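Case study 2.
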Amino acid sequence: MIRGGAGPQVVDRPGGDVVPAASSSRAAEPAPLRTEFDFELPRGFVDADGVRHSHGTMRLATARDELLPLYDARVQENPAFTTVVLLARVITSLGTVPAVTPSIVENMFASDVAFLQDFYRRINAEGHTRVAVTCPECSHRFTLDVSGGRLGES
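Prediction:
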């Protein structure tokens, strides 16, 4: 016999045992893990033909992504090059560039590299691309998605 009112339902079992009734609604399935994040570079990478590439995708980094650059000769000579090698590994697309290489990242504007470093940190350490901001004029606080989405896009 199933009994229960406003509270949780229970089932009377033979022998006097009382156990929770099975829920009629399925447990909410967890959202799938998001592993790729789109971004829009502030300035954009300009290739040899003068074409500007600003929309791209970055994937979550693996431990291997963070370890392999340490074996790179360029990184051993100059540890600051770690960022270049690491970003080239995790950026999966950039406009119509066939493959993002360390050379591509090296030739990006400094402001775009700084944006990508922050974006990398956000998706890998914080798990999202949102940032809290305050309007300098009215002091209204809100969140902004730095992944490059435009108003009205989902």
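Residues 149-154 have pLDDT under 50 and may be disordered.
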